[in-house]
Amino acid sequence: MTAEVDVLVLGGAGVDTIVHVPELPVPFADSLMIRPGIVTRAGQSGDFVALAAAALGLRTHHLDLVGDDHEGDLVRALHRDHGIPLTAVPQPRGTKRAVNLVGPDGRRLSLYDATRAADTDPLPEETVRKLAAASRHAHVVITQPCAAALPLLRASGPTISTDLHDWDGVNPYHEPFALAADLVFLSAAALTDPEPVMRSLTERGRARTVVATAGAEGAYLLADGEPTHVPAAEPPGPVVDSNGAGDAFAAAFLYGWLRGEPAERCARYGTVAGAYACTVPSTRVDSITRAELHARLTELTEDRQINRQINRQISGA
To answer: Which residues, by range, are in coiled-coil regions (predicted)?
Structure first.
């Protein structure tokens, strides 16, 4: 059977309210004047992966629990406007929502409404099996109830990836996702030395490729036991917000990975897409296209080659 979907995204559909603050942590005050204002828009981790994957030409489908509420309407409209199929399972608790405090340097603090999800929330098994059987790959967001769907995905055949975000290497909540995935992404933000954690994942779980993103320091790649540092890509404009950069990285990595490209090149795709995402204000949703990705990677590669030639000439002088 030929797969109908390249990337099935499970979980992570929701709405963010963006609040720009003068600094993080927010200074205590009775009131603060906020500019450029407060904006509510659809788009959480799963939404961003789906949008980024679709922009790169991957056939994408998103599955999650979504409420019959204003936030749910925003999520459905986002997918409809971008032509991304969404299977929205009714969620009586309401659509996931969060408040993102964004500092002037683009850093953010996300406050998630924990009342809109529970461990007992189900994704219908038959729906998961049917979509998984039609998909080449499943990217699983670490929101409930996605952990319970992992055995169904594994039995249905697609390869699996997940993003552990700022995992500290200890929190047991992340382990079902980390150990079931063939490809694991995480942020190095909470790790002094990411390599031991990355190696532990390959030793204890299914993954043979683990990527730890490190912002301006690039990314650390462990593929088939070989560690590689991939430098950060130069952003194509001013950095205004880091929201969605990790999701863009993951989608671009998957774009290369599903094409059978070497892991290091996949990571370079990721750094380019992540850098692009940092130039997009958090009040908008915008993803790098396939043509832009290849053009930007070619440009950066040529720049590095020129710099190496100049350095060799200086060294030989």
So the answer is: none
